[in-house]
Design a protein that fits this description.
mainly alpha, two-stranded antiparallel ribbon, 6 helices, binds zinc ion
């Protein structure tokens, strides 16, 4: 009887942990945003409803932005990231390609990654655009 209770408690705890892991990897990824890069699973997830609502340009922006996170986490080395962070810290928020790029250095890189791959036309060259282009060309092209 006593052993049976312990088994029951074990199953309940296991079930709760299972649900928490499910929420962490499959539900949490959206967490109020339309797309996300999961470092744990190295997966890009894009919400189809947002794509239907906002169109293909929005989807392309999201996909390239998330690919930028993959690139930051899996491709760039420590010194490249350190150099990029120093550049990010010296730039005024108002001169960034999008306001979201001002969130932190990783969002900044993801936004510039999108920007550099989206257009070859750079109306105003900045150090961040140049540096992002160098990093993209170094490993992709
Ligand atoms: Zn992002």
């Amino acid at each position: 009887m006593h052993k049976h209770n312990i088994l029951c408690i074990g199953l309940i705890i296991g079930f709760i942990i299972g649900i928490m892991l499910f929420l962490l990897f499959f539900i949490y990824p959206f967490n109020g945003s339309n797309a996300r890069y999961s470092i744990a699973t190295k997966t890009i997830i894009i919400d189809a409803d947002y794509t239907m609502e906002f169109g293909l340009d929005y989807y392309k922006h999201s996909a390239l932005h998330e690919l930028g996170h993959y690139y930051w986490n899996e491709v760039l080395n420590k010194s490249e990231k350190g150099h990029y962070k120093k550049l990010f810290e010296t730039v005024e928020d108002s001169s960034l390609v999008t306001s979201y790029a001002g969130t932190n250095v990783e969002e900044c890189f993801a936004e510039y990654f999108w920007f550099v791959l989206e257009t070859n036309d750079f109306p105003s060259e900045s150090e961040l655009i140049t540096e992002t282009r160098i990093l993209v060309n170094k490993y992709i092209i």
